[in-house]
């Protein structure tokens, strides 16, 4: 493992644990108080200063075929790394899973995206529509039956599924829908609009795809990364930000002018 700088890796892990714990506590207090309780902002993440050294180790670990060791020593995180490589970033859009969910097919699109979005529920009974205002937005639920019966023309208010997110991508599950937003968050909301969990990926969401058994989620971001997330793991690691008991099992860095890298 000539690629591994143990001191820098330890700094990365320590700073990542501290930052995730601080942000999770900040969000917990905010949500429980409906954001009425005043509290100081979490201390800034200290990892961006390590970005170029960490990226070099990612490259060398890939060359050595030691990706599993890489993930153990240097837990993956987007936001401390991407600002140092802005010219290389591009949107990654996972389109579908193939071979029984073992492979995620994706496309790369460098063009900008606009936030108007629509998604059919898994049973085809409803459509969720999102409209934006600056970097926020609202998502409503429209029953297809009401549209077919001509009732939609005279209805001014629809059930609200979410009042915060500017949605860039979404996938429908049996229990609801996962919405991906401009701030890099995923949220699973049920059919009544209740938030079941949230999970921070780290960069604006550009695409989502889920396996037919709803066990694996592919998440593409404008940070040039493709995340593979186990939705049924039931575990939450100490480096993740959010409330979800889900687990990232791997990711790809798909940056301009660089070879694809696993992390």
Q: How would you describe the overall organization of this protein?
A:
This protein has 263 residues and is an alpha+beta fold. The chain has two domains: 1-75, no CATH class; 76-262, no CATH class. Helix content is 20%, strand content 34%. It has four helices and 15 strands. The protein has helices at 6-32, 51-64, 67-73, 144-148; strands spanning 91-98, 103-109, 117-120, 126-133, 136-143, 160-162, 167-173, 176-181, 185-190, 195-200, 205-210, 216-221, 225-230, 247-253, 261-262. The strands form four sheets. The chain has a five-stranded antiparallel beta sheet, with helices on one face. It has a four-stranded antiparallel beta sheet with strand order 3-4-5-6. A hairpin with a 7-residue loop joins strand 14 and strand 15 (261-262). The longest helix is centred in the N-terminal third of the chain and has 27 residues, at 6-32.
């Amino acid at each position: 493992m000539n690629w591994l700088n143990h001191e820098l890796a330890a700094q990365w892990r320590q700073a990542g644990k501290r930052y995730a714990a601080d942000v999770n506590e900040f969000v917990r207090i905010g949500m429980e108080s409906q954001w009425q309780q005043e509290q100081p902002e979490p201390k800034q993440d200290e990892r961006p200063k390590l970005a170029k050294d960490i990226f070099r180790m990612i490259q060398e670990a890939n060359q050595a075929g030691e990706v599993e060791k890489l993930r153990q020593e240097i837990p993956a995180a987007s936001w401390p790394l991407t600002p140092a490589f802005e010219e290389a970033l591009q949107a990654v859009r996972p389109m579908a899973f193939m071979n029984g969910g073992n492979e995620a097919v994706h496309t790369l699109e460098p063009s900008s995206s606009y936030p108007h979005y629509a998604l059919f529920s898994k049973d085809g009974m409803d459509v969720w529509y999102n409209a934006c205002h600056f970097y926020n937005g609202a998502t409503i639920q429209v029953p297809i039956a009401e549209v077919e019966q001509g009732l939609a023309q005279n209805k001014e208010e629809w059930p609200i599924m979410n009042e915060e997110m500017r949605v860039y991508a979404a996938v429908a599950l049996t229990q609801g829908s996962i919405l991906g937003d401009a701030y890099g968050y995923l949220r699973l909301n049920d059919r009544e609009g209740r938030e079941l969990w949230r999970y921070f990926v780290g960069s604006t969401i550009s695409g989502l795809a889920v396996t037919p058994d709803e066990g694996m989620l592919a998440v593409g971001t404008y940070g040039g990364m493709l995340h593979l997330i186990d939705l049924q793991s039931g575990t939450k690691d100490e480096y993740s930000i959010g409330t979800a008991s889900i687990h990232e099992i791997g990711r790809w860095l798909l940056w301009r002018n660089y070879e694809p890298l696993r992390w």
